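Hi R.,

Here are the chain sequences for the assembly we discussed:
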Amino acid sequence: QLQLQESGPGLVKPSETLSLTCTVSGGSISTTTYYWGWIRQPPGQGLEWIGCVFHTGSAFYNPSLKSRVTISVDTSRNQFSLRLTSVTAADTSLYYCVSLWRATDAFDVWGQGTILTVSS
Amino acid sequence: QSALTQPASVSGSPGQSITISCTGSSSDVGNYNLVSWYQQHPGKAPKLILYEDTKRPSGVSDRFSGSKSGNTASLTISGLQPEDEADYSCCSYAGTTVHYVFGPGTKVTVL
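And here is the predicted structure of the full complex:
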């Protein structure tokens, strides 16, 4: 059964770069069934899609974040990563890594989430 | 601000049916049969409960059903149970530029 697990620093200073990693277990990241993505949820707010990547490295992003986001994949480690530059307090959120089921455009497996706080 | 609109809260008594609306536009909900719904209990990750407007993943109760009319999708929970108390969010595919948009979520309370 596919499982996803996020890891990250927990705290980042304003203007710095956020880096999170998601480890995929129970399946290969090189499958053609899924894209791999990130979704965030600010405290007390709704979900926001950040972007997705295919195992080939081809990625697509939320237009509102596109200038600051890079999502990459490491097939040798069965991991994918999120990089968000120039963070501000508005980027403080619970970050989830997800699998996007290509055939249905639905996010069918979610990690448990990792809290990222932006503060000096 | 979310691209899709949902009511902030809906409530019902055990055994009743409730419906949650998700309103978008002709660029997302109204243009694709690709609305998905997610259930999120407090402190937990969201769980996919409906996809492609009306389909249920394996293992999801048939008390959850979906429909759509124009730019508005709906989630109906029949035979409401205490464990249905959670937040429910809709999501729609919105084309190759915007890709995916979510609603703000609806808090369901079982009275």
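Helices of chain B lie at 95-98. The two ends of chain B are 29 Å apart (CA to CA).

Let me know if anything looks off.

Best,
T.
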